[in-house]
Amino acid sequence: MLTANDIIVLIFEAIDEFNAEQDESKRLKKSPATAIFGRGTVLDSLDVVNLIVTIEGKLADGHEIFLTLANEKAMSRKVSPFRTVESLAAYIEELLQEGSDE
Amino acid sequence: MSDPAVVLITGTRKGIGRHLAEHYAGGGYRVVGCSRKPIDYQLDNYEHHCLDVTDEPAVARLFGAIRSAHGGLDALINNAGIASMNHALLTPLDTAGRVLKTNVLGTFLFCREAAKLMKKRGSGRIVNFSSVAVPLKLEGEAVYAASKAAVTTLTEILARELAPMNVTVNAVGPTPIKTDLIRSVPEEKLEAIVRRQAIARFGQLRDVVNVVDFFLRPESDFVTGQTIFLGGV
Prior knowledge:
Chain A is mainly alpha-helical. In chain A, 56% of the residues lie in helices and 0% in strands. Chain B has one domain (6-232): NAD(P)-binding Rossmann-like Domain (Rossmann fold, 3-Layer(aba) Sandwich).
């Protein structure tokens, strides 16, 4: 089971991959407070897709965890779990916890 | 494409899907196939999974298995589909729902998950299945044709959304081919459809393979969002 810190590290690795393909203006800071979606983000919708898919890929490749992050639960929330690195990490932890409870 | 290229084909138990599986498994591809029921044949370079194409957790497990075994995916051929040939007034809602779910949502789900693996590869090819029932506006196939019209639109828009990932998305629209899909359609109705084609003959499996081959060719990387209807429809 991944810890909260493991998930943050995994997201940072995904940010490294993402940043490697970006101009200076689009590069993300590796910080829990970094905005991914909505207010304060430098990313457009396709960038968010790329980052989310990269994170899903890292969960699958590195940990054999096959999650669809953009699911009904995420999309129906009033406050998006994708808004910051920290909120996304908490959301992934929640999904993993649900999976282990089933 | 990787070497050997990995192609996922849905609906490979029989008909066009089985023929495509045999064609690509025999042609140097590593083929992953799926169907709801088990298959009664074996092929080299072929592995089979039993699942419903609309069962999201099962589909996620299939793509997880492909990711683990092959590291990615080069091509997806979304062949699985069901038909309901009946007058609209005699079509139960449950039947209409099943057709739309399998043909539209199944296609969408596989496109979505395949694109994630293709993004990892840096390129990919998706081939969907439309039908001449769409442009011919065939009576008695309202729900089936509507589902295939949705596949055409899905193809055109996904082509744009996935172009930045070097993934092409195209569709083939077969004419009637003598498979189980149309076994309940009266012969005179099939003959009438064939007479509306520019080339008035039944389609053959090789006609479909030829178009899919074209979409999969490396040289076809500038071809996307297209639906090729067979028979000059």
